[in-house]
Amino acid sequence: MEVKELGHLVLYVRNLERSRHFYRDVLGWKEVAAMTGMPAAAFSSGRTHHELLLIEVGENASPIPAGRRVGMYHFGLKIGTTDEELRQAMNELLEAGARVVGTADHTVTHSLYIEDPDGNEIELYIDVQPEIWREDPNAILAPIRPLKI
């Protein structure tokens, strides 16, 4: 067996409408389906049938534990190819009231880190000179530097 690509993510959310607003209106993903019989919604960038599925579990669901833990740390979304696009995204996110939790220069990417309404961390990034990581895959392990954006 060989994995061909990451197909989709499924996230449990406390409030579907709040998360639907965040992923659709703040991040700009297209909602492609609302499930019948269960509170859920699917989103796609157009690459495939759906890349994200949100399933509502209610306001009383346990929060994501803080700190080091087993499970997902974050997921990454490529949002462009230039620092200007990353700056524009940061401004739009701040205007929308999104929680920005960090930035980083990873040599192969420039990244902005945010949290969704349920505390799931998302890396929004641009590729920086993709030939670097194509020619030297170890470049992804370069020391993280501060990003001046």
Fold blueprint:
Elements: E1 9-13, H1 16-26, E2 30-34, E3 40-44, E4 52-56, E5 74-80, H2 83-95, E6 99-105, E7 109-115, E8 121-127, H3 130-135
Parallel strand pairs: 1-4, 5-8
Antiparallel strand pairs: 2-3, 3-4, 6-7, 7-8
Descriptive report:
With 149 residues, the chain is of the alpha/beta class. It folds into two domains: 1-58, Roll (2,3-Dihydroxybiphenyl 1,2-Dioxygenase, domain 1), CATH 3.10.180; 74-149, 2,3-Dihydroxybiphenyl 1,2-Dioxygenase, domain 1. The chain has helices at 16-26, 83-95, 130-135, and strands at residues 9-13, 30-34, 40-44, 52-56, 74-80, 99-105, 109-115, 121-127. Strand 3 and strand 4 (52-56) form a beta hairpin. The model has no long low-confidence stretch (mean pLDDT 94).
What can be said about this structure in brief?
By secondary structure, this protein is an alpha/beta fold. The protein is built from 3 helices and 8 strands, in the order E-H-E-E-E-E-H-E-E-E-H. It folds into 2 domains: 1-58, 2,3-Dihydroxybiphenyl 1,2-Dioxygenase, domain 1; 74-149, 2,3-Dihydroxybiphenyl 1,2-Dioxygenase, domain 1 (Roll).
- Major β-sheet, in short? 4 strands, mixed
In what order do the strands lie side by side in the largest sheet? 1-4-3-2
Provide the CATH superfamily of the largest domain. 2,3-Dihydroxybiphenyl 1,2-Dioxygenase, domain 1
Give the helices and strands as they follow along the chain.
Answer: EHEEEEHEEEH
**Overall domain count:** 2
Low-confidence stretches: none
Which structural class do you get from the secondary structure elements? alpha/beta
Morphology call: globular
Terminal CA distance: 41 Å
Mean pLDDT: 94
Strand content: 25-35%
Count every beta strand, where a strand is a DSSP E run of 2 or more residues: 8
User: What is the CA-atom radius of gyration, in angstroms?
Assistant: 16 Å
**CATH-defined fold name of the largest domain:** 2,3-Dihydroxybiphenyl 1,2-Dioxygenase, domain 1
CATH class designation of the largest domain? Alpha Beta
Number of helices: 3
Helical residue percent? 10-25%
The CATH architecture of the largest domain can be named as Roll
